[in-house]
Records
---
Amino acid sequence: MTLKVYNTAARSLQEFVPLREGEVRVYACGPTIYNHAHIGNFRTFLFFDLVHRHLEYSGYGVQFVMNLTDVDDKVIQAAHEAGSTIEEHTKPFGDTFLADCVSLGVWTVDSYPRATMHIEQMVEFIERLVDKGHAYSAEDGAVYFSIESFPEYGKLKGIDTSTLIAGARVEHDEYDKEDARDFALWKAATEEDEEVGAAWDSPWGRGRPGWHLECSVMSTMQLGDTLDMHLGGEDLVFPHHENEIAQSECATGHPFVRYWMHVKHLFVEGRKMSKSLGNFIRVRELLEEGYDPAAIRHLLISSHYRGELNFTRAGLKASGVAVQRLMDFEARLSQLETADDAEESALPGLAEKVVLDFRSTMDDDFNSAGALGVLFGFVTKVNAELDAKGRVSTSDRDLALGALRSMDTVLGLLEVAQASRVIDDDLSSWVERMIEERAQARASKDFARADEIREELSAKNIVLEDSAEGTRWKVVN
Ligand code: AMP
Ligand code: ZN
């Protein structure tokens, strides 16, 4: 089986071949930690996670780096408005970002470099570009990348640089227009930058790095001159990634990235998410409203990453139902009373086929929507077989359960649902009530009711342990 990915640079699906056999080096543009991450960001971060998990599932050794942007125009402005330094301002957002990742089951990656920790390497990188004639310092104290010095500029986005005005400059980190202009690698410190602690010494005086430069430096520093995959949201194609290519290829003399992948932006209630529309939803808020993190995860991976995805609370509720169906299915299988003299069932065949189908669907450009279809089709078929057969052998049951768990190492839905249920207060008070009712039933010798309660709990993966001290309970996988 071969993995195919849609490479933004080639504008087509390509067979994935890493630089070194069996190893994949991935760099993903992480959050700018000036505020809490929103659900759009998490559509992108969950895609990163699917890539990470599927590559490992496919047997690759994966080195995965995701940066946290802790100094850029937005961070400085936000710190200034809050009357703090960038360090103080970004710390809590960095922490909650990582906590949200844990809630939604985003695997930890190998490294989370922060720009402010690598200023020295950034200065050295710029010096290399200046020495090679790709950058120049200007009278405003900034250092600019000369795009005229890199004829391939524009190749990622496919923009025409023939109308280029030599020496025209743009200082902002972000700009919408497909403007081929010299961009800042280093910016002279303003009073505001000094106030918020966003200024460092350099051969060009006090200043700070440009946002695009940060990613070029941290990615090549940690992963080498050529990366296998570079991921981000679709808004990053231009100018961010175009500029990263220019900087990196000019500094190292090697191709920067083999496969570029970009995630389409999330819509909310049919519209682009924006503060002015008031549909700007943070992951934190949904968790605080009590939504199941597994449902959020399900919804955000339920559409192919290059396809449209519209977030609605109704959709989130439907995802909650889907997750519950999966939980019920897992509970049914794991609680199943098996019989070793049971006649042959269709389970081994279904289990073998579903894993193959799942793999090939994910290999088709990380088609998570299709993979969920494969998974839920399996749930339906196995449930029907169990209804028809009544009893199956332990080994048949284990094969079905194994297939389910194998797919979940990539999708992470049961994993998140089970982890979140451990800490759910409502659930725990419900369990306590059930335990008490069971104790009363037993005291009045109503053992049928007592057993019923135990079963009801076990369907929710809750196991009771009776001891001299009373009844303990725990959530099991
Ligand atoms: P930022 O924190 O703005 O630097 O964004 C972090 C990541 O989230 C980047 O890869 C962005 O491209 C991505 N992103 C931002 N907005 C959205 C959105 N509405 N939908 C999907 N991804 C987004
Ligand atoms: Zn970046």
---
Amino acid sequence: MLETLHRIVKEVSAAPDLHKALSLIVSLVKQAIRCDVCSVYLTDPDARAYVLAATDGLRQEAVGKVSLPLGRGLVGLVAERSEPLNLSDAPTHPRYLHVTETEEIHYHGFLGVPIIQNRKVLGVLVVRQEVEREFSDDEVTFLFTLGAQLAGAITAAQASGELDNGVVGRQRGARYLAGRPGSPGVSIGRGVVAFRLADLAAIPDRAVNDVDAEVAAFRAAVGAVEDDLRRLKSRLAAEIPAEDNALFDALLLMLGSDTLVTQTVALIEQGQWAPGALRQSIDAHAQVFESMEDVYLRERASDVRDLGRRILTHLQSDSPPTIDYPADTILVGEEVSAVQLAEVPADRLVGIVSADGSSSSHVAILARAMGVPAVMGATNLPAGRMEDRELVIDGYRGRVYISPAPSVRAEYERFAEEERELTAEAESLRGLPAESTDGVAFPLLLNTGLINETAQLGNDDFAGIGLYRTELPFMVRDRFPAESVQVMNYRRALEAFAPRPVILRTLDIGGDKPLPYFPIDEQNPFLGWRGVRVSLAHPEIFLTQVRAMLRAAVDLNNLQIMLPMISSVAEVDELKMLIKRAHDELLEEGYAVSMPHIGVMIEVPSAVYLVEELSRRVDFVSVGTNDLTQYLLAVDRNNARVAEIYDDLHPAVLRALEQVIRGARVFNRPVGVCGELAGNPMATVLLMGLGVDSLSMSAGSLMKVKWVVRSFSVSRARQLLHAALRMEDAQQVRRFMEGALDDMGLGGLFRPGR
Ligand code: PEP
Ligand code: MG
């Protein structure tokens, strides 16, 4: 049964559209269970009904026409209860409904299972038997498991709009793909698919003009792979058994057999670019093998795919894809990376949609820094099929509309216009101080470093740099940057903002920021070798960086150094000693360096409890709410599946912040917040109420936060904070703060439009 299940899911996932996917499901299930009828009903919330979407056994003309009203019939009962229903004699059940449009005879055996995605019932999968039949436990679990696995494939096919001529097509346009808010704002634009090199499955379809050149490039890549294989074969001949080496013969044979090559060339000649044509023909070949009963032959499918990747690598290295980014590019991908983001010219990027990740992924942080709306964790995103599609994205609510209906488009055009007005209004606060209505100043600082945001700056609206992430120069190279290179980088930042303070954070690699040349292979990277843990294990990396920081600050004296991922006092003691050592060495070498202020990030729960001991040792503390939330709530900040429960407005986070401030006050140390919470207008009032000393955020949030600061008094902020601290969950806090901002006419800061 398990094997059949895998096969069905695999075939369905590969189906080009929903219609084909559903037809496949019903006929394969009917065969597997040996029943008389198998049907799928999909929930149509607008029509308040379950529509027959596919059937094997009932009249085909009824597909798309027959609908069972919500709350009635056995299908309705399965959906309402979200549970399987197994009846040997259905007509005796009080909820039995006889449908005549399908020319149904009275079926007796009935088994229905819900198809559920994210707690929503998408539809019901039903099998029926003419005579009485009690389906076995095995059959029930088979169908049940299938229902759970199909939900993803169904949502993906629905969302991609492939059902233009399909069953539920009439709702098309108003349907959106749900993800998580990544960066606020709304955008209308065209999809450009970001894909990883040599990732065949992620290659989008793309049209090509110069067919001959594309064919030539493809043939050259095939030739290069043949050479590689022959070389590999002779090199390994002495080392591995002949049977294993035979793999190379098999691969060479596949390449030489020409069907793969001719098919790909034919596809290119039809106008498809070489990587897209390759993906299609490799898929087709692999599927032939995958559908074979013989286990050995089935395994060959992975060889075909391997061959595909090899050819692709050559194709890409010979002609790196030059992409024509439209002026309204919405970058779409399975897992959009910071580097892919950086490849798009900033003036052409209007949005980002990523199937993976959450609002605290670094890509989302970058998007906010750039003021570009983003939707993260759109798990059912059919990324490969989004190329050149018109998209509307709503970064407030985490929605993506694919090929939107005119009414949706018009609504979002209005939102976008209102947003421009709102931004203009916020911009009018430039030059005004960030202080509450009762005159208390809240210094606003900038987070920078991931990209070169300095271009958009050059105003007096921020009091300095509260977090300079130093990882980027380390990430874009093929080795650790030399001390002199680092000096130049840091000097540029320190000089640009002097005399304002610039807090340089020491290297925070590991977690979701691995270095290509320093692989850290771990099961749980966020609980592993990360931040100062790497620095302590490799003092040479840390010392080089600190030396560069100190040298860069000579004569400027606006440097402060911040240590990430601190979880114990011993780490601080040791790192301080290293900083002192770098300082003394430089003095000896004749550099006029001075000792900077040193601070720690509070982003691990243990640091919250140790805040007094830590404060005693340093000059300032800064709360990294992104990681603190991740570790307090035990929710991976990049995992789309749990993104819904990652919430930095959680009362536990607020209470931890309160404790941090209380602890740091014992030694009179200033407390800043530099996680994304600091740039969230919904949290500003709470942070004012807590009495934090500074807020450090992305450039894109600055004016909005200033607007909030200037709209509330500290006494009002304290009242709101005290109420929020008593709340039990993040949703409650969120609704409460939305109300507070709405009362001040600031609703446009957290929802589309005004
Ligand atoms: C944080 O964790 O809140 C933080 C500011 O650091 P990063 O997002 O770079 O991990
Ligand atoms: Mg962090």
